[in-house]
């Protein structure tokens, strides 16, 4: 039985896993899942009710994109994306954590603005401002950390670049008014370079 990836085509966390699987040349089946649908069965696979969720060959499941991509990187020596040990590994995982944390904040903003369970008067501008502050601070830090380097790890792309690229793609998708390209040309350059790769071009978020 092939691995199955349960996920959504709009989720940046799912996209990160799909890009890693493409870069690692791993065979799998993609199973679309809308966790917001009334008939969703995602809780039977992941008690947190979130995607991505990876169903392995034996039927066991693992979830959380950071856990999944680390498992996938160890499956095959092709295109190693995470350094094995030491400070280099910690740095790459920290950039991934920052990219994911920026997404967490941006998604909270989107939910605050669009969740149908709340009226307009129940939405909190102060909460939105707080979360957007995290997004903007993260963009600044990501751009500063990349600087003039081709990639976060130096001359070769890796997991940090994939995580940041997926985060930037989702911001462009859901927050087109946020001018991160104009403010941070280093990030725009990285994103443009990543979009030339089939793994990114073929996994762009769509509704």
From TrEMBL:
GO molecular function: transferase activity
Domain GST N-terminal span(s) in chain numbering: 1-80
GST C-terminal domain: residues covered: 85-207
Keyword presence, Repeat: no
Keywords associated with the record: Transferase
Pfam family, one: GST_C_2
Domain of life: Bacteria
A GO CC term attached to the entry: cytoplasm
Entries under PANTHER family matching the protein: GLUTATHIONE S-TRANSFERASE OMEGA (PTHR43968:SF6), PTHR43968
The name this protein goes by in its record: Glutathione S-transferase
């Amino acid at each position: 039985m092939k691995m199955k990836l349960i996920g959504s085509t709009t989720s940046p966390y799912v996209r990160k896993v799909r890009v890693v699987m493409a870069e690692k040349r791993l065979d799998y089946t993609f199973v679309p899942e809308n966790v917001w649908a009334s008939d969703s069965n995602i809780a039977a696979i992941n008690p947190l009710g979130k995607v991505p969720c990876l169903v392995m060959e034996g039927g066991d499941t693992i979830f959380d994109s950071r856990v999944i991509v680390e498992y996938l990187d160890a499956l095959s020596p092709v295109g190693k994306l995470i350094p094995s040990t030491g400070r280099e590994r910690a740095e790459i995982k920290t950039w991934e954590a920052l990219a994911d944390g920026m997404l967490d904040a941006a998604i909270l903003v989107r939910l605050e603005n669009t969740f149908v369970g709340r009226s307009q008067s129940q939405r909190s501008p102060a909460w939105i401002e707080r979360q957007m502050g995290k997004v903007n601070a993260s963009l600044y830090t990501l751009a500063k950390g990349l600087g003039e380097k081709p990639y976060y790890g130096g001359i070769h792309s890796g997991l940090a670049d994939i995580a940041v690229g997926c985060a930037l793609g989702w911001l462009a998708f859901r927050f087109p008014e946020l001018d991160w390209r104009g403010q941070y040309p280093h990030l725009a350059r990285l994103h443009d370079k990543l979009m030339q790769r089939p793994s990114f071009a073929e996994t762009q978020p769509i509704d």
